[in-house]
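Hi everyone,

Forwarding the result from last night's run.
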Amino acid sequence: MKLQWIKDVNWKQGLKDTDLGKIADLIGIEGFIKLMEEFSKTYVYFTEKPIVEMMKDYILNNYKSGDARELARKLGVSEQFVFIVASTMNKDPNQIDIFPEAK
């Protein structure tokens, strides 16, 4: 679908108070048009799972004893989350966990 014409109308008013309007404001009208041309009529769900997995990798690669607070602030997570992830470092996969994490 060709959407370049959107730039010629009052798109801010047309998208006012909508999620699409928020997206257009965040990425700009050119990016919005590209996104809509690519994904028009497609249900898009933004899951955080890949982001959480990247956070875990980041913690595992950057954790040093005593810097949990700094990592937690940088990533926007709790210190407890950092400690839980860091506790998996160098863990023997054959070792039985006597305190399994509640699910």
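Residues 19-39 form the longest helix (21 residues).

Cheers,
N.
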